[in-house]
Amino acid sequence: MTPRHLPHWNRPGVPCFLTWRLIGSLPTGKIADVWTSEGAKFVAFDRMLDARATGPKWLARPDIAIAVAEELAAGAVNGYYELGSWVIMPNHVHILLCPAVQISRIVSGIKATTARVANRLLNRTGPFWSRNYFDRWIRDSKEEQRVVRYIENNPVKAGLCADATAWPFSNAGDAAFSRVSSGRISR
Question: Which segments of the chain have a pLDDT < 70?
Answer without folding.
Answer: 1-12, 27-54, 174-187
